[in-house]
Amino acid sequence: MLLLETFVDPARFHGTVYRAANWTCLGLTQGFRRTRDGYSADAPSPKLAFILPVQRDARAQLSRSILDPIYRTGAPRIMLTAQQMRTLPEFFNDIPDPRRAEGRRHRLPVVLGIAAGATLCGMRGYKAIAEWAKDLKPKARERFGCRRENKQCIVPSESIIRDVLIRVDPVKLDLALQQWNMAFAKEDKSLAIDGKTMCNAIDEAGQQTHIMSVVGHDTAVCVTQKKSALCP
Fold it and tell me: Which residues are CB-neighbours of 231 under 8 A, at least 6 positions away?
């Protein structure tokens, strides 16, 4: 556990006990209520939000671009709809296939579509993406456009997914993902810009690689990334 959070109704209380116990007041929430269908249309009761770090490095941990696995809980980020499964591979149609024509068992857009879908649903790493693909039901595999073999839709293996993601053009892949994001992602009221140094990534000149990311506050979606060997 990194952080405690609580809410106080300012119409009834001032949060005096929390303030005295060194809790930090972040301000008022937007005031929407949870309903069976999501959130209420109006915002009648904003609450005061208080937080209390329970570890000294709580801010540093929560500011990381990828949260430490021991702190990850909850469900995947999103659930793909049938329409998103059908259209996701189409965004990768214009990316050149880096593989030789011989032995291609799965079309490039299908492999990239499944990898992107797994990542959107919270999977991290080649093994997790491959396991997510294996768990796809027959209808989902058909929507992604998987090849048929013995009347069954076959998903790409971990080795195929790894080979494609290592060799595909990262700039064209990033552009395709941005186009998907523009078509399907929710609108963000603001964006956060953050940088990270890749400790074990060294270029040909012996310099460490740095990545600058732009992430939406509301959707938590990475809008774009830029890699550079120079400090931003």
Answer: 210
**What pTM, to 2 d.p., does this model score?**
0.51
The tokens describing 213, both together, are: 């990311």
> Which DSSP symbol is given to 121?
T
The pair of structure tokens assigned to 216 is: 């939406």
Residue ranges per structural domain of the chain:
3-63, 82-182, 190-228
Neighbouring CB atoms inside 10 A of 122's CB total 14
Q: Retrieve residue 140's tokens.
A: 């989902």
CA distance 219 to 186: 6
Output the tens digit of pLDDT for each of the chain's 232 residues. Answer: 788 999 999 989 999 999 999 999 999 988 877 766 666 777 778 899 999 999 888 888 888 766 676 776 654 456 777 888 888 888 888 888 888 887 788 889 999 988 888 887 878 788 888 888 888 888 888 888 898 888 888 898 898 888 888 888 888 888 888 787 777 765 566 666 666 665 555 656 666 666 666 666 565 566 566 665 444 4
Question: CA-CA distance, 78 to 112, in Å (whole number)?
Answer: 18
DSSP string, 183-225: HHSPPPS-EEEEEEEEEEEE-TTSPEEEEEEEEETTT--EEEE
